[in-house]
Amino acid sequence: MKEMTARLTQAAPLTMRLFAATVCVNVLSFASPLFVMLILGQYTNTGFDGTLVTFAVGMVLAMALQVGLKQVRTAMAAAVSEAPDERLAAGVADVLTRARMGALWRVPEALRRSIPAHLDAVRKAYSATSITSVLDAPFCLAFIAAAWWLSPWVGAVALVGTAALLGQGLAATRAQQRTMREAQREDMTLRGMVESAQRGADTVRLFGGGVFVQERCARQGATVRGLNMAVERMRLGGMNAAMTIPVLARVAVYAVGAKEVVVGNLTVAGLIAANILVSRAFMVVAQFVGTGMRLARGRQALRDIRELSRVPLEAGSGTALREFSGRLSLRDVAFAYPGSSAPLFESLTVSLPPGSVAVVHGPSGAGKTTFARLLTGLVVPTRGDVLADGITLRQLAPAWWRAQVVYVPQEPTFVSGTLRENITLMRPDMDDEAVAEVVRLCGLTALVADLPQRLQTPLTRAGRTLSYGIRRRVALARAVTTQGRLVVMDDPFEGLDEDGVHVVSAVLRDCARQGRTIIVCADAPDVLTDAHVRLDLGRKPEPEIVWAASPGRQRTKEQSA
What domains appear along the chain, each with residue ranges and CATH number? Predict the structure, then answer.
């Protein structure tokens, strides 16, 4: 309830109007029992039709007013949560787009993948329906008090019945919520198994893993089904109890009320009115119990979202140089993943003047991709600094710095959008002529021409519907649009055919002619035959740095051949 109270408090003027509307809606609920008492009391005694018409018109007006107030109240309740829901969604988006990658990796994958569902659970928990049912809940006592005023015995029966319904509902909600959380965890495990089998389809088939996968998925599936069946049994049990308790309570109301009528303590009209009041009290309690389940899910979702929100973010601002020359320095840089027994590298100090060409090489797992990400600011050194024109990356504005880097990752991924939107992600204002030139430069002209929607073709599944080689070319096109002075390519020739190698080599030659600083990460040290400097990350813990005796024009393996 803390979150709901906070939301209501933040919108204090609106909340006051919402409270006033709630009072009016619930006061108008007394119109029905009052109408019954007046009709059965006065009209049946006098038989005057004018009285009947007056009471009927008054009842209709009260109902119409109540319906109108309910609609207004629903709109106000929705407005209470509109801004908090938007802030929460914006905060989550901010974390996912600005979180430090090293910290984000430590967040469980299941939590990251369930964020959209968590946001939906929060919206439902604090929806207009939930807010109005919580505000209506105290008026249950007003309805019981009215029934008590008509007959203390009837009021006592109503009080016991509503207490039983509330207690049963809350207990069932807690039990169901615990089982649902366990079911969700096990279901996420099952989804991971299925996804792993799909991604590793070749492994499953080539190495006879089908039976193993089927057995594991079958066992996990049985666990999930068992938990889901338990949740369903609890839900049905709760529904049955929610229907049975009010019925039994109304039977008791009529039984006790009939005895009161016989002894002269209650009229027949009073008995009917009391039953209407008791029914209204039970309806309010039932709605509150249903809201309790949504609130429980919302609280759990908020806890998970807040756990994600504790991830440290990249700086939102910083220094932006007037111009970046391309000079890059590493000063006593070390990097180690949390929990690892040894650093990937340490004590790395090197300075690359503008226009330098460097090859960072080493076997798989040596840290080449991590080194590339370090230069882009995606990860930060465990010790030391990376400096651009003498300014540490820690002080530079991340957005500005990445606009200075032509970065091609080893495993490129793309956002949900069109091919054109992905290529121009850094420069969305590029005109069609400039985009066409980038497409030509990266050898994508024929591919784009074959696509039914050309550059407007949507990329789905992070671009995995494209072949690996085409993804590399699209990533290259996206990178060169930045026109940065630092070029960082992680294994740029991997997975490319002869034409693809030619395209990448041409881009590298063009960058070298323009005097850009080039850093290429690869397994082999001779991927660029005339590099000015080579860093061997295979040497642990301190990489070996070898400078060329007389740096010449940068050449690729293609040129040497």
Answer: 2-309 (1.20.1560.10), 328-560 (3.40.50.300)
